[in-house]
Amino acid sequence: MARVMEYRAISAREIEILRGHGCSCDDWSRVKVKEGFIADRVRNTHLSGDIYLGIFRRQVTFAGDLARCSGIYNATLHNCVIEDDVYIHQVKNYVANYRVEREVVIECVDTLAVDGPSRFGNGTRVSVLTESGGREVPIFNELSAHIAYLMAFYRHRPALIAHLRDLIDEYTRRIESSTGIIAEGAHLSGCRTILNVNVGPYARVEGVYRLEDGSINSSREDPAYVGPGVIAKHFITSSGSSVSESSVITCCFVGQGTLLGKQYSAEHSLFAANCQGFHGEACSIFAGPYSVSHHKSTLLIAAYFAFLNAGSGSNQSNHMYKLGPIHQGIIERGSKTASDSYILWPAKIGAFSLVMGRHYRNIDTSDMPFSYLIENTDESYLAPGVNLRSIGTIRDVQKWPLRDRRREERPLDSIVFNMLSPYSVQKMIRGRAILEELERVSGRTSEYYMFNNTKITRRAARRGIYLYRLGITKFLGNGIVDRLERSSFSNEEEMRLALAFGEGGTGEWVDIAGLLAPAEEVARMIEGIEKGSVASLVLVNDMCRAWKDRYADWTWHWTVSRLKSEAGIDVTDVTVERLVEFIKEWREAVVALDKMMYEDARKEFTLKARVGFGIDGEEEIRQSDFENVRGEFDSHPTVKNILEHIDRKNRLFETIMEKLQRISK
What we know:
There is one protein chain. The chain is α/β, with parallel strands linked by helices and 665 residues long. Among the domains are: 1-84 and 92-97, no CATH class; 114-277, UDP N-Acetylglucosamine Acyltransferase, domain 1, CATH 2.160.10; 495-548, no CATH class; 576-664. 32% of the residues lie in helices and 28% in strands. Helix 5 runs antiparallel to helix 6, helix 6 (458-485) crosses helix 11 and helix 11 runs antiparallel to helix 13 (637-664).
């Protein structure tokens, strides 16, 4: 329980001083102290069981610059190690079976205890996606979104699930203890009951109502916070996270940098890095990185999300028939649900889509990314590709890395933020082919086409084909231009060397809860886990970090393969003339998409957008009020970014063309 060599038996003189300060003990022979122990710093305290006391010399400073001496005042301790410079004050009931590390503050706490062997939330089975079970993820302190993804979605590989479960069980067995830890620098104040909970370094726990069977992981660089009114059972929170304002969580994992507050309620749910949950409710969800819900009337249930923005009143249903809550949904990365939207599970929504209205059919739009899913007279209409021209889409992608609240040197989740990637572009390629085939088999005179329980109008299909073509060309051209910009060459042979590529990444790509990676690499790791060559959870997370580091190289390999199939360009023998031709197509695609976003942004500055401004005046006052609040269109930061992007790409185009023209002479 403690390093015995550091402690000695308490002396008769020290016992006398403690008694004089209102202290008592069941058996003084079980009390050990460090050399230098100051008995004056323990007052009105009852001791029982095995007690180890450190040296209390340091002053503790509170808000308002109030300073107090470290020590133990008005408390009951049972089977505790209290390390140096701890401040314990006003424990209403008792602290039992805890190691309290140096410079911890415990003030105005009712009960802090470990009752029998505990794993402190580790090993809790969280029933994600299907409330009735079948995709349980056992949570543990080092759980990454990627391990959770494999546990939840790769049930078709039972050997993988069994091996991962064994590794997690082994980890949780090592965690098991009859003694809890309040780690160095943690502050606990104004709390009611804390039972079987480990508290990490420098965490802040304030005003909680009840915490039971959990771990609050934290660090000096990125402290965690659990705040007023919180009730949490069978939980794990991570460094940099915050659960506060009377939120209630049961059987949940809260990832690094995630914020839950304003009476949020969550049950059997996983939250990856940098999620936000306020006011609303979550039940059996797997919230991938940056999933956000801010509204009281929003229910997220039985689904997987990533980079989601849930509008007010968003709702789903997982009771399709009569066998209970057995249905699930998937909303792929970067999507939004509009206010009062509804989806009947099972359904699958493609990446970077916008869902508006209520949808009662089992929809699958996963091969139609960047789409609008719209309700019209109780039917679901799909507008493929239109989100490629939305200013809101690019604004979301740009803000995600800026809102990364994690401060750990090695974060648990490895995240790739890119909007255009092998993952999304492969879907655009499939989507374009599907639309062309629908047009071919249905005929050009058809008013609309049916696709996976949605309707696509003929005009929307033609527009989708055009937008997907622009997006594909932009992505493929970005790869070529980037390579040529970073390389020096004086002839065609050297130019082709600048476009050289390696192995890996040329096939299908997957999104493993925020991490984009080649499916073949994921399969290779899974085989390693099944065969035992990948034999630790740490190694799994390290491999995921390595995938993120190799993202750029693998992306180029994939781009090379698609340049051949999509544009007829073989980089091993491409000519200057063909590159010049394709780079011109690339610039046209980039500028066309940017101009569409520019016009989309202009909608926010139309006369209709000014309704409600200039409340007590005529048109001149309305315009002046609008401009003073919102600014002028051309000076808006997002609009300026678009114009600067067009200018930057045009200058890059001129630079590349100049380099190519030099070797073509």
